[in-house]
Write a structure and sequence with these properties.
Elements (H helix, E strand, L loop, with lengths): L2 H45 L16 E4 L11 E8 L2 E11 L7 E8 L4 E8 L51 H24 L9 E2 L4
The structure holds flavin mononucleotide.
Length: 216
């Protein structure tokens, strides 16, 4: 084989490699954009159960605050707050927080509340509670979380923000009061935080996304 044949072969291979690399990079860019859009849509949908009965026209995920620990919200991991608007006016906030005292560890929950402090919905996002016992707090398994809708720090009074077995107003689950107790406490403490920080949370303009905001 002559030297020129070897060089030609090498150049051909290099050209093919370059074309393949470009194609892979191009496909990756296209797919990445589609995956981002799908993830965004999925996230938006997953937040809706905590916004029942509320009119809003902002993309919920567009106005997100990540609150790194330590903070005054329930849980020791970072909390997330999504601010929700209608015609540029604040209408609600969604909190992703953790109830610390679950039976089998922290329970990640989503708590929505309108600007008056009325709960628009609670949704259990992630937990390790026991199937058939604590897992009945999931909205696919029972309506247990529905009882928070429309409640606030004034209804019931703060001392009655507890399960019935502890003298409060919230139903527990038969044979499983540890999980409901943890969630009731976390929802209440989220409302307490919201009450104290509402103005601060909505102080800046809508849609300044993914901020790491200095909130306690
Ligand atoms: C193996 C096992 C798993 C349990 N899992 C849970 C659970 O996920 N959530 C819960 O609240 N209680 C769970 N319990 C029950 C609690 O230990 C506790 O007895 C119960 O929450 C008390 O509820 P009660 O006050 O209605 O009797 C579990 C108990 C056992 C033995």
């Amino acid at each position: 084989m002559s030297a020129s044949t070897v060089i030609k072969g090498g150049v051909t291979l290099a050209v093919i490699a370059a074309i393949c690399t470009t194609l892979v990079a191009f496909t990756y860019r296209l797919t990445e954009e589609r995956i981002d859009a799908n993830e965004q849509a999925l996230l938006e949908r997953s937040l809706q159960p905590a916004l029942s009965g509320l009119f809003y026209d902002s993309g919920v995920t567009e106005s997100k605050i990540i609150v790194p620990p330590p903070h005054d919200l329930p849980g020791s991991e970072a909390a997330i707050i999504y601010r929700v608007y209608a015609q540029q006016e604040p209408v609600a906030a969604l909190f992703v927080v953790s109830a610390r005292d679950g039976y089998a560890g922290p329970i990640r929950i989503l708590v929505g509340a309108d600007t008056e402090g009325l709960v628009t919905g609670v949704h259990v996002l992630e937990h390790r509670e026991t199937p058939g016992l604590g897992d009945r707090v999931e909205s696919t398994k029972s309506d247990w979380v529905k009882q928070f809708e429309g409640r606030s720090l004034l209804d019931p009074t703060p001392s009655e923000w507890a399960i019935k077995g502890d003298g409060g107003q919230f139903d527990q689950l038969t044979g499983a009061s540890v999980t409901p107790r943890a969630i009731v406490k976390a929802v209440k403490n989220t409302l307490v935080y919201y009450d104290a920080h509402r103005d601060e949370l909505f102080a800046d303009a809508p849609a300044e996304s993914d901020q790491q905001k200095e909130v306690p």
